Amino acid sequence: MRGVAHVNVAAIERNVAALLAATTGGAALCAVVKADGYGHGAVAAARAALAGGARWLAVVTAEEAAELRAAGIRARLLVLGPLDADDLPRALDADADVVIWEREGLERLRRLERPARVHVKLDSGMGRLGQRDPAEATRIAEELAADGRLLLAGAMTHFASADEPGGRFLDEQLDRFRRWAEPLREAHPGIVLHAANSAALLARPASHLDLVRPGVAIYGLDPFQGDPADHGLEPALEWRSRLVSVKPLEAGESVGYGRRFVADAATTIGTVPQGYADGVRRALAPGGGEVLVGGRRVAMAGTVSMDSFGVDLGPGAQDAVDAPVRLIGRDGDARLSAEEVARRLGTINYEVTCGIGARVPRVHHRDGRPLDPDPA
Ligand SMILES: *Cc1c(COP(=O)(O)O)cnc(C)c1O
């Protein structure tokens, strides 16, 4: 074993249940499993989220939707991303709801001459995808609703700064969205209004509306980059490896490309068989990275290579070969969170778990027990 991402599906299940318990007004939950479930494995994450009470799933691409359907997942599914003329029929083949925000999107749907459930997206301040002009968004929605084949299924928006505690911009966005979407729902009582990502779900009950769309929090990651436990969330992923080699280093000897680590005293160097091709960021070392080895925090030593990196075990650690390594996770009392790794890199936990490479197998378990190989 070089390295494995151990993912506890029971933790995802419990996180979804905890998030549902925090929703107000009977809002349903749409679990966002885009980007291979934020690196956790989309199919396993989707099944766990549904078991925890999610009623909808969301992805970004048509391929991601097709992957879930191929695994036999039948829940209501929303494709959030833009879909070109090739991707749109693929998304509909997967029986997914789709999102539009411009007239071109509506025309593309009409040209297909097939039924579709469609959500209209307002850009209430994210400045990325979505219709800026509420009047135009309403016209698009009304034309959609008047089309015999198409169904106006929802109205949505996305927050730009829900993770900033006490931020006023979220309230402005929510106001703008409600002023547009509530009259639309009066005219079309069946439609679903949705806006809240994980941070808004946790911080602004008023944003819950009919459906919440948490992603990062279902994996037990903190949208505010603090401690997930503060929100009753439990990290689902551990990134594990083992020391494959341990050897003594004399003062003055170096480790790794560019000789960027030189021992100032005799020490012991262990080699972890995970490198930047596995998603260990080269920017971490030397100088910034730590991992857990045998339940102890140790510093990374030298440059991260494509397939491995060194750790400074200190003098007299020759017997550490085969010791368990955690690049993220806990071992005994020691804990290294995705939030901490992100802080060291100047990024966010989202990027850390999404960045775990395709070469690292995802192994799913339920509180330490193997999964039923053929889940119902
Ligand atoms: C990714 C995404 C989400 C989930 O956001 P989190 O911050 O991970 O909870 C919700 N809605 C949209 C449109 C997204 O793209």
UniProtKB/TrEMBL annotation:
Active-site residue numbers: 34 (proton acceptor), 257 (proton acceptor)
Q: Which SMART domains match?
A: Ala_racemase_C
Biological role stated in the UniProt entry? Catalyzes the interconversion of L-alanine and D-alanine. May also act on other amino acids.
- Modified positions (N6-(pyridoxal phosphate)lysine) are 34
Q: Say if the entry is tagged with keyword Kinase.
A: no
Task: Kindly report, in one word, the top-level EC class recorded for this enzyme.
Answer: isomerase
What EC number(s) does this enzyme carry? 5.1.1.1
Question: Could you say which cofactors this protein requires?
Answer: pyridoxal 5'-phosphate
One Pfam family name is: Ala_racemase_N
Keyword annotations from UniProtKB, A to Z: Isomerase, Pyridoxal phosphate
Q: Which reaction does it catalyse?
A: L-alanine = D-alanine
Q: Which domain of life is it from?
A: Bacteria
Question: Know the name of this protein?
Answer: Alanine racemase
Question: What family does this chain come from, according to its entry?
Answer: Belongs to the alanine racemase family.
Pathway of action: Amino-acid biosynthesis; D-alanine biosynthesis; D-alanine from L-alanine: step 1/1
The UniProt entry, under InterPro entries, shows:
Ala_racemase (IPR000821), Ala_racemase/Decarboxylase_C (IPR009006), Ala_racemase_C (IPR011079), Ala_racemase_N (IPR001608), Ala_racemase_pyridoxalP-BS (IPR020622), PLP-binding_barrel (IPR029066)
Alanine racemase C-terminal domain mapped to chain residues:
236-365
A GO term, aspect molecular function: alanine racemase activity
Q: Which residues are recorded as binding substrate?
A: 128, 306
